[in-house]
Amino acid sequence: MNTTPTMNLSHLPDERGYFGEYGGSFIPPQLATILDEITDAYEHLRNDEDFHTELAGLLRHYSGRPTPVYHARRLSAALGGADIYLKREDLNHTGAHKLNHCLGEALLARRMGKKKLIAETGAGQHGVALATAATLVGLACDIYMGAVDIEKQRSNVSRMQMLGARVIPATAGRGTLKEAVDLAFEEYVKDPVTQFYAIGSVVGPHPFPSMVRDFQRVVGDEARGQFQELTGRLPDMLAACVGGGSNAIGLFTAFLGDSGVELVGVEPSGRGLSRGDHAATLTLGRPGVLHGFRSIVLCDEAGIPDPVHSIGSGLVYPSVGPQHSHLRDIGRVRYVTASDEEAVDAFFRLSRTEGIIPALESAHAVAFAIREAPRLSPGAAILVNLSGRGDKDLDHVLEHHGDRIS
């Protein structure tokens, strides 16, 4: 396999927080000084050995890293073609990759003297992870969540409350992730001094896209070494679901320089590609500014965000991390879609063949691998980031697709 570096992207973002034409900081003046302080604090901690030692210790002894790479032999045999491997982020404490950056953000907030962590959440995985990290470091925690998602993800709401967090409903608009972000930003502007907004993906104003990426890189670094240990080579293809894009960037970053490894981000096509029925931002969006950063956005010509939909609540966002937009433009990552129906099929198929119940978000990437594996030659390998487990989705899936249980 050719692993010659194809491009050097290690210098991104630039000093203004841009990945090519995307990123930056489009924020109210009263937040500029606070974000400069966060940037300075993070840049300092990036070179602080004590910080890295503390974080590494928590990731290993508290979160349970490293998570394994698993060969899905029964699923692969049933499909034919390429072998499918899973990076098991579902085995992290709290059930998803989100704890990787939440621990880092919580430690940063504590060192900055903040009193409270606040955040948005869609499927609840980021909310649970942040509530967990807040409890661990001794900070208060407020989680803003769309009213629709609160009803859909009751088990995660209960977990957040059990961990001591306040769950605050966002009732405007469609009551999903975008509205939760809107409300969280409104509350952050009111008190940016004592609160720390722990953004839940590689989105938002600089420095959050690069900071969350750096905390999530542990996924790709582990996977690279583990896959080579298992097989003696690198995978032919990586696949990860993309909403905001943190799990995908976490996996992709360690492989960006390997020209022989194809990188594929899987967006939700939902009920179809009509306006309001999907959240396929990189497939159908246009450049714009949302929530303090420039990226690709699903919006009208005036820049008003479109309504969006996916069966995976964590993917219901009308924009995407700015680095993903740049990676699309330069052709390093291919972005495709998977529908609600395909995600549900993958949810059941992985459960029934491998005894692993995936999060509906992660099931989009599994769906792509199921679709792609038979098209590839035997001996090829697809590594899927299984970014979360599906306990949170069982009630919803059984309510709407219970006829498949037999």
Lay out the secondary structure:
Blueprint: E1 18-19, E2 22-23, H1 29-45, H2 49-63, E3 69-71, H3 73-79, E4 83-88, H4 99-111, E5 116-121, H5 125-137, E6 140-146, H6 147-152, H7 154-162, E7 166-170, H8 177-190, E8 195-197, H9 208-231, E9 237-241, H10 246-252, E10 262-270, H11 281-284, E11 286-290, E12 293-297, H12 322-329, E13 333-339, H13 340-354, H14 360-372, E14 381-386, H15 394-401
Parallel strand pairs: 4-14, 5-6, 5-8, 6-7, 9-10, 9-14, 10-13
Antiparallel strand pairs: 1-2, 3-4, 11-12
Helix pairs in contact: 2-4, 4-5, 4-9, 5-7, 9-10, 13-14
Which structural traits does this protein have?
six-stranded mixed sheet, 43% helix, disordered N terminus, Rossmann fold, alpha/beta, 406 residues
Structural overview:
This protein has 406 residues and is an alpha/beta fold. The protein folds into two domains: 151 residues, Rossmann fold; 224 residues, Rossmann fold (3-Layer(aba) Sandwich). It has 15 helices and 14 strands. The strands form four sheets. It has a six-stranded mixed beta sheet, with helices on both faces. It has a four-stranded parallel beta sheet with strand order 7-6-5-8, with helices on both faces. The protein is globular and about 55 Å long. The N terminus is likely disordered.
